[in-house]
Design a protein that fits this description.
Helix content is 68%, strand content 0%. It is mainly α.
Length: 361
Amino acid sequence: MNKDKIFLSWLSPLKFVLTCLIVYIHLYNAQNYGLIYNLGIHSSTLWIEDIVSQNLAHIAVPLFFAISGYLYFRTLTFANLKEKLKRRVSSLCVPFIIWNAIYFLLFYIITHVPMIADTLNSTAVVEFDCKSLVGALFFYKQNYIMWFVYQLILYVFFLGPCLLLILKNMYVSLLTILILAVVYSIGYLELPNLSENTMMIGIYPDMLAYFIFGGFLSIYEIIPPSKLDRKKAKIIALLCFIVSQVIWSINHAEYKDWYLYSLNFLFNIISICSILFFISSFSDKHKSNINIFDYSFFIFAIHPFLLECVQKAFYIKLPHSEWVALIDYILSPMITICICVVIGKLIREMSYPLYKILGGR
């Protein structure tokens, strides 16, 4: 097996790890337990949650976009564009609609049961009408986690041919990434600004930049590097990691205005390089097939509601203290991930075609 295929085989466990980190992002519970920063003095729980959720896990979503761009543009040509789009209909569009429908029905039911509705973070009653249905199915109104898939749909189906033209030229590609970074750095988080309540349904310039960057790394064979041995790849990965941590430390010192966004973007780009170079240093060893890695998208799609249920059980049943907050932070995501895998496994065994739809495959 060649180096490129071995590298691709490592992306599956990487995506699983990133999915787990996303679950931890969604359980940053310091404020729920009354833990706040006080004159620069951080509690151990705050410090741990900052390191995991605000630093290590911060790269998860940008890296997911970069991997998506890497895989999409890796073999893309105008000749096979139609075939690529057909596959993305089944792996993106269908799961997007199905999961949005599931969450819409779920929240419709539970917001009409007073005892359950009182326990939700948002008790707004979901109505079953045309406007609500359209907002839910096509604009992830009740399923905020699907903003990621929504953005990919925009990039692939609406911008795909244009992006392919851009990536045909190395310098135009880099210039486009730079322009998007500048746009993001000066505070334009959505283009055009079509936000409705908590939904953002325009294009995220930073996420589009990571998507293009992934395609750039693939098309120009920067990763996995064809003329770089394992040792040099690890050295580059380590240097990128050190630089990214310096940037994170500076940015975490609460710089304001454009510094916050520009440093954040730089941190993500360098971290992406660090992780992918590190993975490429193992490109002479094929990873073993582990079934749990196949549940990444299913965990991603179903975890928000389950995580909230598990978290509320901890919050209601246990006393409120710093150590309980830390226990909640460590265990709730683990329990949620295990439940997600068990549910996914049961669905897969009962109906594999259904699981293929729900699992984004």
